[in-house]
Amino acid sequence: MYVEKEIIEEIAKGLSISYSFVEHRQQLSIVIDKSDLLLLAKELRDNPSTSFDMLIDITAIDWLKPVNRFDVVYFLYSNKNKNRLRIKVPIDENDLNCPSIVAIWESANWYERETYDMYGIIFTGHPFLRRFYMPEDFVDPESGEPLYPLRKDFPLMGIPGSLPLPPYPERDGELK
Description:
This protein is of the alpha/beta class. It has helices at residues 5-15, 37-46, 108-119, 169-172, and strands at residues 19-24, 27-32, 54-62, 70-78, 83-91, 97-99, 122-124. Helix 1 packs across helix 2.
């Protein structure tokens, strides 16, 4: 079950933040500016009418657009009210910083690291932001720029020479 839109509107108006809603297949998302994220997240956790005590996941979406290329998406759940909500925060490619919410939900630590590693979004205030899956030196061999494998402009076959690839018999012939 998803939280009532009216409750979230009331909270957002009380906090004097700008927001919009996206509803898809009866699933509610609130879209806010990154400057309002900490304020809204804390209120959603602490307000008895919402009680979003659980951060389920954080991820990003790469829209490959010139403005607000990325959305950072937070999946929340209320054990008390059995409600779900998504918070979407648009991020521009020229300013890849987003506030860390580790102080609000401790589980954000791992999710923010994973999102940083795969998309390159920097969570400002994170206690120990570093690569999660990829090696720290995962960079383009020619330019030295860090590589982020879930970006839409990342080559499907990877960067030649950046990581050793497993044998590819269809291309290289059978192994001996």
